[in-house]
């Protein structure tokens, strides 16, 4: 189906005083290219540093300086385009977008306008209810970032920091295909995930490596698109959700009062949780775009594009499908595991040659659960994939019970070591010797005649007996054997 025609699920409709409404969202995401140097100069593109530490004469727009295109940044844009299953344009043009701002020393931004390097593509987003939605990508173009004005350093002066001036940005423009704040959040999350897999953007929103202009309009379900407002520079996924919900309600309020929406640029005030007007369409800039005479059109050889394609990693959607088919995982578990490349790799190192479901269970529930609690990641995990694999092996072989495995995990987490050796040394092996279990069962039956009477009437009291046997055997008795022996002796 043409995704622009998609109507939101009823659960996402917004109730107004006069009936239901649907919210329509399209995003322009600015993603900083992961590159050592800037788009048109050799200055460092690294985050941080003292103000104006990373500024070349090109970035400061000294007279007579000429931009030289950074081949690596172009490659990163092409890689991203390929990852978005998009059309790569072998011919594209850099334009000057003219405007004045103190942190834009050139007086124009070099961007791409009519002929971007990447054309139409798509991103699949996975929603909590298991549904997948396709979001169309309209284009991806390369452009320079601007510097930053600092207004809080001096009582009556503003300063300018040009460290970011000239850093390479990819502007990724979506179609208006999202129908709720959750869909928009899922889209940005997926886009960031894909770029992290590709290594083209670190997706670090706190450092401004990724930020979004959020276009929002409302309509009657299935009706004509309404006039949109654009919320500029939203730098967190949570804020984006809040901004969309506030903005949709604001527009519905105006329309239901008989008013009309002015197409305007707005800002989200995170402290107040509301959007407010920045400038209206009438005040919109006329950027007087024209091709930058200092730069030749960008011509890509198809062979070069093909060679980049050869180096693309397996992307999250494909990896997830493979985890489901090769390891028998649920879609949910597979989604959790592929969320980052490092976690997916970790899982595969555990699962190779082992029971995939058991491996997934251990990686997700035990390891990730523990890492989260300690604020660590798989990269800084004190327990390695080989160690988790060792624990899984011991469970699979029946050497230890699931309960002992958790204790063993704790030991490995704090003390390290080879799981099999630790089990050996500490005597954690499961007792499968039925003689020993029988002895424990006999003792418990003998000393609890009242409970023995009770369990005959209430068979689910068996759990109490199992618990007692486990206690006396230090949790090491094979649970299946305990159950069988108890049932036989109690006559259940
Ligand atoms: P402009 O060039 O003025 O920024 P575009 O047509 O390129 O306009 O659209 C910019 C963004 O606005 C795109 O991400 C697009 O999906 C989104 N958009 C367009 N129309 C609407 C609408 N009616 N409601 C919400 N978003 C929209
Ligand atoms: Mg725009």
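-> sequence recovered:
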């Amino acid at each position: 189906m043409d995704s622009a025609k998609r109507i939101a699920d009823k659960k996402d409709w917004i109730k107004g005083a006069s009936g239901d409404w649907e919210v329509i969202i399209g995003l322009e995401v600015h993603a900083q290219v992961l590159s050592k140097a800037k788009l048109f100069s050799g200055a460092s593109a690294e985050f941080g540093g003292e103000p104006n530490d990373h500024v070349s004469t090109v970035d400061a727009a000294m007279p007579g300086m000429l931009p030289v295109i950074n081949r690596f940044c172009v490659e990163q844009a092409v890689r991203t385009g390929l990852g978005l299953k998009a059309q790569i344009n072998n011919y594209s043009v850099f334009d000057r977008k003219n405007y004045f701002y103190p942190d834009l020393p050139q007086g124009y931004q070099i961007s791409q306008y009519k002929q971007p390097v990447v054309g139409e593509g798509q991103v699949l987003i996975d929603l909590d209810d298991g549904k997948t939605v396709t979001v169309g990508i309209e284009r991806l173009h390369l452009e320079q970032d601007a510097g930053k004005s600092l207004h809080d350093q001096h009582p009556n002066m503003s300063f300018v920091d040009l460290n970011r001036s000239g850093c390479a940005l990819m502007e990724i423009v979506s179609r208006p295909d999202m129908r709720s704040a959750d869909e928009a959040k899922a889209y940005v999350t997926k886009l960031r995930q894909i770029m992290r897999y590709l290594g083209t953007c670190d997706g670090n929103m706190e450092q401004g490596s990724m930020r979004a202009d959020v276009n929002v309009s409302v309509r009657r379900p299935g009706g004509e698109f309404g006039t949109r407002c654009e919320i500029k520079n939203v730098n967190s996924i949570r804020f984006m959700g809040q901004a969309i919900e506030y903005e949709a309600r604001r527009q519905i309020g105006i329309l239901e009062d008989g008013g009309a929406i002015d197409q305007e640029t707005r800002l989200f005030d995170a402290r107040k949780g509301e959007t407010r007007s920045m400038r209206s369409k009438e005040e919109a800039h006329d950027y007087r775009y024209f091709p930058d005479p200092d730069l030749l059109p960008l011509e890509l050889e198809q062979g070069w594009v093909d060679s980049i394609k050869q180096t693309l990693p397996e992307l999250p959607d494909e990896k997830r499908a493979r985890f489901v088919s090769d390891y028998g995982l649920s879609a949910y578990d597979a989604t959790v595991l592929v969320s980052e490349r490092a976690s997916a790799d970790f899982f595969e190192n555990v699962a190779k040659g082992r029971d995939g479901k058991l491996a997934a269970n251990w990686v997700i529930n035990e390891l990730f659960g523990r890492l989260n609690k300690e604020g660590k990641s798989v990269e800084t995990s004190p327990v390695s994939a080989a160690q988790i694999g060792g624990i899984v092996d011991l469970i699979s072989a029946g050497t230890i019970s699931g309960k002992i495995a958790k204790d063993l995990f704790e030991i490995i987490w704090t003390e390290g070591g080879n799981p099999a050796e630790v089990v050996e040394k500490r005597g954690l092996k499961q007792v499968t010797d039925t003689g020993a279990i029988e002895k424990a069962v006999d003792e418990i039956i003998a000393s609890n005649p009242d409970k023995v009477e009770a369990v005959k009437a209430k068979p689910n009291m068996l759990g109490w007996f199992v618990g007692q046997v486990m206690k006396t055997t230090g949790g090491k008795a094979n649970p299946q054997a305990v159950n069988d022996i108890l049932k036989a002796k109690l006559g259940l």
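The mean pLDDT is 94.
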